[in-house]
Amino acid sequence: MFLLIDKPRGITSHDVVTRIRRITGEKKIGHGGTLDPNATGLLIIGVGRESTKRLSEFSDKSDKKYEALIFLGEERDTDDAEGTKATKPKSQISNNNKITISKIKNILVSFLGEQEQVPPIYSAIKIKGKKAYELARRGRKFQLKPRRVNIYDIRLIEYKYPYLRVFVRVSSGTYIRALARDIGRKLGVGAYLLSLRRIGISKLSVDTAVDLDSLNEDNWRDYIVSL
Fold first, then answer.
1. Count of C-beta atoms within a 10 Å radius of residue 111
2. 55 and 107 both lie in a single domain
3. Over 90: is that where the pLDDT of 113 sits?
4. What pLDDT digit, counting tens, does each position of 172-202 carry?
5. What is the pTM of this model?
6. HSE, side-chain direction, 13 A CA sphere, residue 96
7. CB 188 within 8 A of CB 75
8. Which regions of 64-136 does DSSP assign to beta strands (E)?
9. Residues belonging to the active site
10. Which of 47, 52, 68, 130 has the fewest CB atoms within 10 Å, counting from its CB?
11. Are residues 111 and 207 in the same domain?
12. Does residue 7 sit in the same domain as residue 102?
């Protein structure tokens, strides 16, 4: 049994699992692909032992589709809006008036295909048994190794400086926060991810997902899907 949830902003993927465990009374609950607390969108929930065994099919192997809102003009240490502002070089300010739609489209196209991506330092990647974000919060200095990712599609949706909205379809393991950071660096102005919505996983769409607040003990079985 699976539930397709439209995760709201401000809670973790684990919070969703906890809530659905309480609603369904099932002990074995899991999700297929973490969303950051400030991200919204499609979250696949497995209900029961057999379904949770299959969740890796979606978290590890399926491509993901996102709409990302990127803020141009500065970087942050977390690569998203939650982080501390980084210093903005004067060269970045002077480049702002040079960011045309044509330049943005050319930069976006340059990210297509297989490539190496350095994950955000504030991530759950483990370094000698410790999560990277835990080390970063303690002020520890370290570097994360690049990972192979694949960007299958990336398109401009809307642009009005300093806001850039894009659609992306990527392989599992791709950090959209890191992509936003790297787009800003190629543009020469810096950038961070302002908001993110996952609109699809493989052939599944958020359009078929249910709002978390709509689920209760009496109706949750009405939203079960077979995958």
1. 18
2. no
3. yes
4. 989 999 999 999 999 999 999 999 999 999 9
5. 0.89
6. 15
7. no
8. 64-72, 113-117, 126-127, 130-131
9. 36
10. 130
11. no
12. no
Query: Closest Cα to residue 11, out of 31, 40, 32?
Result: 40
| Cα 52 from Cα 49, distance rounded (Å) | 5
pLDDT at 165: 98
Which residue in the block uniquely carries the two structure tokens 């009496």? 218
Residues 155-168 pLDDT 10s: 999 999 999 999 99
* φ and ψ at residue 198, rounded to 5 degrees: -85, 120
> Looking at the structure, do residues 41 and 148 belong to the same domain, yes or no?
no
Radius of gyration of the chain (CA): 19
How many domains in the chain?
A: 2
Q: Are residues 43 and 80 in the same domain?
A: no
Please give the residue range of the domain that contains residue 130: 64-201
**Which letter, b or e, does each residue of 33-43 get, where b requires 16 or more Cβ atoms within 10 Å of its Cβ?**
bebbbebbbbb
> What is the DSSP pairing of strand 191-201 with strand 39-47?
parallel
pLDDT tens for 116-143 read: 998 887 666 777 666 766 666 666 676 7
CATH code of residue 33: 3.30.2350.10
